[in-house]
Each structure stands twice: as C-alpha cells, then as structure tokens.
Amino acid sequence: MLYFLCAFVLGLPKSVESVESSDVATEGNQSSYSLSDLYKILEKSVVQIDTYDSNLGPLGLGSGFIYDTNGYIVTNQHVVEPPSVGTLSYDVIFTDGSVYGAKFIGADPFSDLAVLHIENASGVNFAPLKLGNSSAVKPGEDIAIFGSAEGLIGTLTKGVVSAVGRSGLSGIASTGVNPLTGMSSLGINFDQPEFIQTDAAINHGNSGGPAVNMNGEVIGVSDLTSAGKAENINFLIPSDTVKRIVPSLISNGVYRHPWLGLEGIDMTSSIAKVLNLHEPKGFLVVNVDENGPAFKAGVIGGNRPVNLPHEGRSVLLGGDVIVTADSKDIRSKHDLLLYLESKKVGQPVELSVVRDGSPQQITVILGERPALGGFS
User: Does residue 375 lie within any of the structural domains?
Assistant: First the structure.
C-alpha cells in the first residue's frame, strides 16, 4: 500500500500567552515571516497528543493545533481513534512541557479530522492559529510544517506546495481499494478528493499538525506520507475542509457527508468508443445501491460485461454516464466527489446522464453517507 498514516506528536507553553502583534499575521497583512518567526508562532499553538488505552496502555502519539480560545484542538481521526480494546484517554502536551487532559469531542473518518477539548485549563490564554484559504494555494508556494517528527517535539520543516486538488485514499480507506471503484455503496471506498501535495517532510508523529504558509496561516493538516515508497510525496488535508467539517464536529460530534449511493469508473477512450460517445468524458455508473438515493431517483448501473482488449480488462457497461451535476462538467470521479462535498445532505442535485446514447435529466435528493464498514 502506497500511503501510510503518520501519527505521532507535538507541543506548547503552560500558560499560553497571546501571540504578540509582531509575531502574528494580521488581517490583510500579506508580508511573509521568516522561519524563525514562524517557529515562535507555532510553538505557542501546536500540541502533542498522547493517546492511551485503559487495557493496552500508551497507543501512540500525534500532533494537533489550537483551533480557538475555548481550548478546542484539531487533529487527525487516526490519531485519537486508533484500534483499541479499552477506553481511550488523551493528554495534551505544550512545548513548555505543561500537560492537560483532553476530552474527545468528535471525529470524521472520511476526512480524517477530529476534535479534542482541553479540560481543566481555566485561566490559560490559548493562542489559536488562523485558518487560511486553501482554495487560493498555488503550486510552488513555500510552506512550513510543525510537529513531533519521530517523537522530536517542536520540529519545523519547510517545503513547497507540489500540487493541489489531489485525489487519494483517506486514512480510513487505505485498504487496497481498486482506485476505479469510486463512491462505494458499502461506504468503505470513499476517496478524499482535495489533498494538497507537498515535498515538505511529514514523518511519523506529524499527523494532525498544521502546515502553514509564510504568513502564518494554516493551509493544511498533515495527514499522509509515502514514506518508504517514494521521496518527498506527502499530503495535507486542506484548511477549507477543516472550515467545513470542524464546526460540525464541535457542535454535533459528527459531520454528515452527502451521498449518491453508487460506484463506477472514469471514462476512457476505449469505453467512449464502445458507447459511441464523442469524447471520453464523464463518470460511468457500474453499481447502484438499492437503498441509496441514486437508485430511488432512477439512476441505473451496468448490466453487461464488455471486454476491452486495448485495456486488458472487462468492464460492466449499460449504466448511466454522468456528464454534469447542476450544470457543472463531470469529467471524472474526482470532479463528482469534489462537487458533492460542496453540497449538504437533503439537497437536490440535477444529474445530466447519457443512457443508451440519449441524454437524460435525473434529480437526486442527496442522502447521508453510511458509516464505514457496511450499510447504514
């Protein structure tokens, strides 16, 4: 398996003083900080998370960062919900060595985000990091990552944004899934469609820690590394995803992802030729969950296997080809997933599909993505 989760550590000061104006990027101030200034900002706001199992003892370490002045911490789901047999508990450690207990608030395994809340810390002035606009991030930008790489608390690394909008398996889905399966009706194959790729070092222990631009704004959360498989290919959960999901985790403990209830494959030139399409564009529906919203709306899946000798495989054809969603072009699974994440459960989506060579319009009322491991 190419990608590995990178759970481990981070830290902050006992009575965390508010970051002084000289150390913080103010609204509208686009001047860049030096790396040493960034370090001063991050060391006050990034924490180490120790996870314990009541039966197994210490389970691992991870990183997180202060989200607001109320003591909420953003981290990775895989950091705070590792495989366990007993009751989980957490310590949060600041870079000055001060330690606080933390309470689990909520997690979203599909985005690999989670929230903890620091307990019994009255009088502490928390210094939250500012969330930046990840949709404005461009390849080539300098960024810095702060975390406890291999348990070395307060480690700062620097790199560039290698690419944006990368599609890849999130932490909970990295189980050998065929990359052509798309949105699984079983709820276990969902891709994370928005990764930021970077060459900045992400090591075991960085998981959940922030990646910041040179203005000190969080543009991503450390999540995946290709350690041992490829050099300098690492992935961040975008800050825009954090903005969308974390408020729901704080208020409700969960985030409700919209769901169509189908799986399929991206169009190829061979498939387009067999279907007499003018260009290889769209998402071919292969299977439709009979309990899902797409099935109820009339979307159909494949019904006949067709051998594609040029591709060396057989593909199930006969299903709808989704070409637009609410008039937005859908050229691939990535496009469809990305658009769905901009919607909410219960909202309608108007799908334009090609069925047996003829255009069709289908309105689907989005359902809630089922829990991992089976039907909801």
Answer: no
The residues facing 168 across adjacent strands are 192
Burial zone of 236 (CB within 10 Å; 0-12 exposed, 13-18 middle, 19+ buried) = buried
Residue 149 and residue 155 in contact, taking contact as beta carbons nearer than 8 Å: yes
Active site residues: 78, 112, 207
Distance separating alpha carbons of residues 90 and 118, to the nearest angstrom: 9
Q: Are residues 113 and 146 in the same domain?
A: no
Token pair of 148 as six digits:
């406890």
Structural domain includes residue 92? yes
Q: Range of 162's domain?
A: 134-244
Q: Of 85, 118, 151, which residue constitutes the final position of a domain?
A: 118
Cβ count near 68 (within 10 Å): 13
pTM reported for the whole predicted model: 0.83
- What is the distance between the alpha carbons of residues 314 and 155, in angstroms, rounded to a whole number? 49
User: Which residues of the chain have a pLDDT value below 50?
Assistant: 1-29, 169-189, 373-376
Instruction: Please say whether the beta carbons of 88 and 77 come within 8 A.
Output: no
